[in-house]
Amino acid sequence: MAIKTQPVTVNLGPQHPSTHGVFRLRVMFDGEEIVDVEPVFGYLHRGSEKLAEERTYTQIVTLTDRMDYVSPMLNNQAYMLAVEKLAGIEPTQRGVWLRMIAAELQRIASHLVATGFLLQDLGALGTPLIYAMRERENILDLFEMLCGARITNSYLRPGGVFMDAPTGFWLALDRELVDIVNTLDELEEYLSGNEIVFSRTKGTAVLAPELLINASITGPMLRASGVDWDLRHRNPYDYYDRIEFKRILHTASDNYARYWVRVQEARESVNIIRQCVAQIEPGPVRPSFDDVPRLIRPPKGDAYVAIEGSKGELGFYLVSDGGIAPYRMHVRAPSLINLTLLRDMLIGGLFGDLFVSFGSVDLNMGEVDR
Amino acid sequence: MIGLGLPRGFLVTLKNFVRAPVTVQYPDRHVGLFGAAKEAGMNPFRFVVKRPVDSIKAIAGLATVPVALEQSPRFRGNEFTFYEDRCTACASCAKYCPLGIIEIVSVPGKIDAQEGESYKLEVFDIDIGRCMFCGLCVEACPYDALHMGTKFERSTYVRDELIVTLDELNAAEKKPSSFYRPQFEENAFDPYTETVDDHYDAGRHERPSDEDLKKKWVDER
Which range of residues forms the domain containing residue A203? Predict the structure, then answer.
């Protein structure tokens, strides 16, 4: 006698430790197999884009911190590049180098979080996650030295950063870079050769490169499928054209490839920071207040700038009507757009792979809902 | 090779098992007998004889000492440091605040030590309960009157208690953070051990000599 199964609808979230924030998944299972998935989000909507319309250009930095709260420095950078393009501000050299160093440190921290939570989703509760978070803490300590806050940084200002790095920063950074490489070695030691990780992640949630391109997916997810698309290389902003770095590519496009790309990218970020430290020169970190006043009034017009965020193409679109606040701000949030392929990833997969695949997208609900 | 990954993984766990912990006990740290004696400033034998109850507690693992967290001098905390003598009531901070939580009421008629005549503050309220510690008010202050603080423990049962008034700001301990204040960093000022009580020392300029000050007051009269 054949055993029959009946489809069951299960509601995951909005409060669930594996959904990386307040996110709800309505999943229909047939036995172990996923038949249908319906994502429900918007629980963390704070109206940042609307709030920006009544704040001055400097005050909006505090809002961008809270969008993708795992990589606030990258949000700051994308926003400030958009403001500089809109207002025609020439940034100072040292300010640009400092924000590149901060952004790459943030990328490492973000990828460590993604890797740590991937393990959590695989079922390794706690311990391996703490190994990754421990290193992230040290990076956050560096941010505290730089700008006085660990997550809500607000470090960048139009044309640079608000304050030069303190005396002890460079020594601490050197030490931290060595630590990061050690931690990544350690991570790879117990992950990259681990049969359980292989069997759980290899060959699951495979996405074709054409599908990814059509859905405008960017970031590590796209590079894991072999498409060479990195905005730092394709469309260099800041001083990325003065830096040589490897583009990390993998062809498998499964969960393992996405994990692998993130770890290797974190390694490459260490390399980039070393080059930044070698090229940084003394000088002012922000333009004088005669050139760029505290209250800037950009001319009428609009500007869109996209950077390679930790999760994909992070873009800010600003429209100015000549006033002290933007007429409209729009954020191209990579987390939200990377979510669009969730159905293609999950349907047909097994229940056990649900959260692994979901976690390998590396989304951040603060950015999805804004 | 099949089968090697797992032992290698467990080796990492083993390595971390013998590693020194990175977590910090907060706000109090448990100390044994020796730690408790050291905290009391006695040698252990004397401690056992003089304070038997405390030593039994310490042996049972109940003795604790408070822990100070390691923070950067730039840490943007609450307990704002405010020097009323430096303030000219220009309200730059209130205008720059993204949330509009600083309330200032001023009247003319104050004779300032630095600027001569200026406005006198009547109300200077900061609603810490809504503050996000972005530091933009401190960045806006042209006379270095307002500084970020270094503490972060300020929990109450009533929201109104989180509104810091002028009197509270004046009475608070002056431990300014070096956030956006390069003059503190140049002197390697550490807010966790030192205080800046004199408002002249908190400014970006050089402190005027006593003679200059005297002359200024004589001239004004």
Answer: 10-27+57-369
Distance CA A257, CA A357 (A): 12
Give the start-to-end residue ranges of the domains of chain B.
Answer: 25-67, 77-208
Q: Are A211 and A344 in contact (CB under 8 A)?
A: yes
The interface predicted TM-score of the complex, written ipTM, equals 0.78
From CA A218, how far away is CA A306, in angstroms rounded? 11
> Given this model, what pLDDT does residue B206 score?
67
Nearest CA in chain B to A193: B5
The class that CATH gives domain B77-208 is: alpha beta
CATH number at residue A217: 1.10.645.10
- From A311, A329, A310, A312, select the one nearest A320 (Cα to Cα): A329
Given a cut of 70, whether residue A77 has pLDDT beyond it is yes
Containing B66, the helix (H) or strand (E) segment is strand B64-66
The one-letter amino acid at B176: P
CB spacing of A193 vs B5 below 8 angstroms: yes
Inter-chain CB proximity B180 and A62 less than 8 Å = no
Closest residue to B136, CB basis, from A58, A167, A195: A58
Q: Measured between CB atoms, which of A62, A152, A189 is closest to B8?
A: A189
pLDDT score at B112:
60
| Closest CA of chain A from B162, distance in Å | 21
Task: For B12-36, give one letter per residue: b (16+ CB within 10 A) or e.
Answer: beeeeeeeeeeeeeeeeeebebebb
What confidence tens digit (pLDDT) does each residue in A230-277 have?
A: 888 888 888 888 888 888 888 888 888 888 899 899 999 999 999 999
Q: Is A48 a member of any domain?
A: no
Q: Provide, as residue numbers in chain B, all residues whose Cβ is less than 8 Å from the Cβ of A189.
A: 8-9, 11-12
Measure in Å the smallest separation between the Cα of B80 and chain A Cα atoms. 14
- Residue A274, phi then psi, degrees to nearest 5: -60, -40
Asked, for residue A102, whether it belongs to a domain, the answer is yes
| Residue A61 with chain B: CB contacts under 8 Å | 134
Nearest CA of chain A to the CA of B63: how many Å?
Answer: 28
Residue A95 lies in a domain: yes
